[in-house]
Amino acid sequence: MSLALKLLTGIFILCFPLQAFGWDWQTKVTVVVKDQPLEVVCGILEKEYGIHFSYSRELVNLSRKVTLTAHQQRLKKLLDELFSPDDIRFTRVGEQIVLLPAERSTRTISGYIKDASSGENLIGATVYAPALKQGTTTNQYGFFSLTTVKDTNSLVVSYVGYQPHLQRVPDKGDHLLNVTLQPLGSLKEVVISAKENSKLQEQTQMSKVKLNASEVQSMPRLLGEVDVMRTLQSLPGVSGGSDGAGGLYVRGGGPDQNLVLIDGTPVFNFSHFFGVYSLLNANVVKTTDLYKGAFPARFGGRISSVVDIAMKEGDMKEYHGDASIGLIAAKFNIEGPIVKDKTSFMLSARRSYPDLLLNAALQSDNSLGVGGDFQAYFYDVNAKVNHIFSPKDRVFLSFYRGEDNLSIKQTVDDSTYVHNPGQYLGESSKFQLGWGNTIAAIRWNHIYGPRLFSNISLNFSQYEFFTEYEHKYVLPTSGEKSDMYGTYNSVMTNSGGRIDFDFRPNPRHSVRFGAITTMHNFKPGNASFEDKDSPVTPLDTLDASLRVRGLELSLYAEDDWQIKPDLFASIGVHASGFLVEGRFYYSLQPRLGLRYVLPRNWAVKAAYTHMNQYIHLLSSNGNTLPTDIWVPSTQRVAPLFSKQIALGVGKTSSNLKYEFTLEGYYKSMSNMIENKETNGIISPLGSRWDENVTVGKGWSYGAEVMLQKKKGSTTGWIGYTLSWSERRFPGINNGEIYPYKYDHRHDIEFVLVQQLGRHWEFSASWHFNSGTPITLPVASYAGGGNASPWDPSPGTPGVDRFDNWNNYRGQAVHRMDVGITWNKQKKRWSRSWNLSVFNVYNRKNPFLYLISEDAEAQKRYLSKLTILPILPSITYSIKF
């Protein structure tokens, strides 16, 4: 080596000793600083000795100031002195020192969130740990579980309509807490201002709307009745069918494709008065969750929507209740403790009375000698008992019975017709129509540990429809007489059980899993008929082709998973099977939801769901009625299934006043049934129902947007839906695609609630949707002779020619409803008056279209039947 090269090498080594030879934990360093942040010390070591530090500013805080004098001190000892006071760990990775937060031990805090005044559990309350900047929500039984760092000493608990609460946590161990929240208005001032509610951008679940009791109670009323289902109809993506009807058609699905749960038990007909009113007294409903898509794996059995209704549990502290009377119905509700803070009850009843009013009118005019009795009413009864066996065990018993009755009795006074030969000497007739639901359930909640919660349920549900007919008469000339009597009834029952587990291993995972078993029992077609004055053998038959049992089994698992700080997933699977008539159908239904948080706290969400449905609704081609029959999948008709994808964005404003959602969806449906053109729901003698239906497919797609104001003296929402819903069946419409009967291209909903001082509240809603598709003939031909399609004279009737199904779109439907409520609070009770006007500008919306004839002008024209004009109502209520 030359002298020059040796000189250059020596200079390089002297100037950059660490770079050349590296460093280790025994390297001696010199650092002198006075009142400087740790970050500055790291910078000196990097600059002077080439020791690079790597860390995240969000996890590692180097702002603490230090004063240090270290001469030729070993690197490892120096770093221990610097970082140990802040519990900062360090490790060597390659040529870098990586700084990490200390491995802080964790603990799990769990418990129940309750209403302080009543002791009722609160569903969906938010529990937030400020130290960890993470939180959770209570499940449908008010239970929460949150794994956080060991030194967490406080939680912020909040729920809409309640005062936020700062809950102190004991210093050591896992704890089961019972946290109580005060309703807003019961305290004079807000002490805590913190995270009040879970925001849309913090929820992976999409296509879900939560209705609280206060939102339902504020809506304008039809004939004085607050209605849960009618409130759901005012949401984007939900249609009610004909104006005034109470059905639900969600994202292009049929009325049979909605899973309606009352405290976890399914019901099969959720309306009174042919759909005008919903099944439940709204005063006993605590919360209502509507899932239009992105269904969690714990739900199954329907393909279009889930309506999950939670009933009140009963006040654990004191007795109170309410009662109201309106133009068409009266109701009451009472609840309170059986054993204070241990056992509570809730009892509610409702009864309508239009028959009492109509009977009084009918009896006022009996000039023709015709007498009778008319009954048309509904009633429902709710009862619930809630008992706490221990801090970890609670049992609920619940019961519901609701029924509709329509009865017409008519008698003819024989003195009126005795001098008119050939006329009836005496005649009487009776017709009765009714339907009803019965549900019962027992549920046991158990806490196995701070992270694991379970619910075991046994439930029973029955839907029945019945008719009764009787006709008696005597002819004066021949003495001929007849005494005819007939009945028909149809019954469907479900009985089963389920076990659900809620497991919260850590803040990044929320796991649910469970098993469900259901026995379906179908008994339609039970008919009998006899004429007591005829020698003909009476008819008494149970249609064995429709009497079927089916066993449904399901397993599910789902996990809400935080993959990264801004990426979340909800992953689940629902596996089910159905054993019927010796055949076993099965399906594996994946569920996937994704959420990515964008800048400015906007969340992009996407979801894919696969749903199966093992039962069908056999209905006529007209409107859905209580006479429609529930039937199972069979050897000929496979289960329904659907696939839905959805994509959307959502955000709740920082002040929690506004929420905005925009969603697009596409859904395909298979194995749908439709009656053939010439058949109704009653099968020809000797044939099965599944021989008289055609099986096809359906599609629906569209977009929904909703802007909601949730806080302040003015609240409400505006929603718009653009949608398409289509069907295709072999043998119908030449096998071509046609619009579904409830395909509404445009749907607009506007809801406003305005507080006017302390005592007054005004509400208004406006609804618009495009006309309903209907099928009309495109031409008519005379059948022969002088007869014509509009000529009522004898002859061969005319013939209508049709080209396509639902080839004409009816008139657009729109309506405004308004209501105003006056409240007065006394010391121990309150009273209120509500005045509501349904269809305030008297829009003549069509309920049914008819083809009418004008024989004189030799023309036919389309007419419409309107059943709900402007309808004012007044209701008086008291609470005590």
UniProtKB/TrEMBL annotation:
<protein>
    <submittedName>
        <fullName>TonB-dependent Receptor Plug Domain</fullName>
    </submittedName>
</protein>
<dbReference type="InterPro" id="IPR036942">
    <property type="entry name" value="Beta-barrel_TonB_sf"/>
</dbReference>
<keyword id="KW-0472">Membrane</keyword>
<keyword id="KW-1134">Transmembrane beta strand</keyword>
<dbReference type="Pfam" id="PF07715">
    <property type="entry name" value="Plug"/>
</dbReference>
<dbReference type="GO" id="GO:0015344">
    <property type="term" value="F:siderophore uptake transmembrane transporter activity"/>
</dbReference>
<dbReference type="InterPro" id="IPR012910">
    <property type="entry name" value="Plug_dom"/>
</dbReference>
<dbReference type="GO" id="GO:0009279">
    <property type="term" value="C:cell outer membrane"/>
</dbReference>
<dbReference type="InterPro" id="IPR039426">
    <property type="entry name" value="TonB-dep_rcpt-like"/>
</dbReference>
<dbReference type="InterPro" id="IPR037066">
    <property type="entry name" value="Plug_dom_sf"/>
</dbReference>
<keyword id="KW-0732">Signal</keyword>
<dbReference type="Pfam" id="PF13715">
    <property type="entry name" value="CarbopepD_reg_2"/>
</dbReference>
<keyword id="KW-0813">Transport</keyword>
<feature type="domain" description="TonB-dependent receptor plug">
    <location>
        <begin position="224"/>
        <end position="302"/>
    </location>
</feature>
<dbReference type="GO" id="GO:0044718">
    <property type="term" value="P:siderophore transmembrane transport"/>
</dbReference>
<keyword id="KW-0812">Transmembrane</keyword>
<dbReference type="InterPro" id="IPR008969">
    <property type="entry name" value="CarboxyPept-like_regulatory"/>
</dbReference>
<keyword id="KW-0998">Cell outer membrane</keyword>
<keyword id="KW-0675">Receptor</keyword>
